[in-house]
Amino acid sequence: MIDRSRITQPELDALLGKSQEHTISSTSEQFYNRFITRVLLILAIWIIRIVVVSFFPEYHMISRAEHKLLSSEITDFLFIMRVSLFLVVAGIYFASFYTRKFFPQINAFTIVVVSCLIWSDFEMYILDNLRDLTLASLSMIGLRFVALTLLILNFVELQKRGYKI
């Protein structure tokens, strides 16, 4: 009879008077594990991008004609500014996560910053040269979207958990 029941295990435990603490702590633990996994993946993606851009510049924004889309001075300046911005935003993000203060707002702020960076790159040089980019350059662009998607998933999960902006 229990096999045909549509009662979930937590509901059955509540009907039988069992404690809800274990259920609540296990769902909180699952949320925390998924959240941390996504944050670590985002961090790994950005570190991979930093390593590739600094040590293998031939894979970053090179066209099929083997010429750089940006001069080396502009690329160096953008690299330093982006790494600086990454360190500042990541520091704020982790401090907010650790203290649990303003974390949903900081999470939304991080999504806006990453979206603005992606949009500025598209506006400046990717749209004009999209068909001429190499597969390696396109994969570096794709990594940006993967990181953005993971940030959005964290934001959506925070909203589902009841954290409001």
Q: Notable features of this structure?
A:
single chain; 165 residues
Describe this structure in words.
- With 165 residues, the chain is an all-alpha fold.
- The protein has one domain (9-160).
- Helix content is 75%, strand content 0%.
- The protein has five helices and no strands.
- It has helices at 9-15, 21-55, 72-99, 103-129, 135-160.
- Helix 2 (21-55) runs antiparallel to helix 5 (135-160).
- It is elongated.
- It starts with 8 loop residues before the first helix and ends in a 5-residue tail after the last helix.
Strand tally is: 0
Distance between the termini: 45 Å
Q: Number of helical runs?
A: 5
Global shape: elongated
Strand content: under 5%
**Which structural class do you get from the secondary structure elements?**
mainly alpha
Element pattern in H and E: HHHHH
Provide the gyration radius in Å. Answer: 22 Å
What count of domains describes the coordinates? 1
What fraction, in percent, of the residue positions are helical? Answer: over 70%
Q: Could you name the ranges where pLDDT drops below 50 across 5 or more consecutive residues?
A: none
**Overall residue-averaged pLDDT value:** 79
Largest sheet: none
